[in-house]
Amino acid sequence: MRDNLADALKNFGQPQLALPLFKLSASEAEVAGDWADVAWICHNWAYSLRILGQLPEARETFQRSAEIGRKIGNAEVNIIGNELEVLRIDIILGEVETALPIIEQHVAKIRDWWQVNREKN
Fold it and tell me: Which among 11, 8, 6 is positioned nearest to 26, based on CA atoms?
């Protein structure tokens, strides 16, 4: 419930009010061992941090979401989405030369994933 309220606040232009709710929701989900919720909450929390310009914190939280997602077996395309957000922040922070080759690798993975899934349908 708290996470839903935080999402609503973020979506209605009040991300600063959402931050403590995301933090508490993530902590509670972690204590409960609900890692899928932790990954989801961290993604939304990181988005709010990015909106507010808290880039190092947003980067760390997107990375946490990706790492948890990988550990629990989330779809690779969702994990890559979080990793691309980390790289977006790296570019904003001036790390273009480091980030671009990794972005290209991710784009190739997504292209391969898309092709495989397109052929299945």
Answer: 6
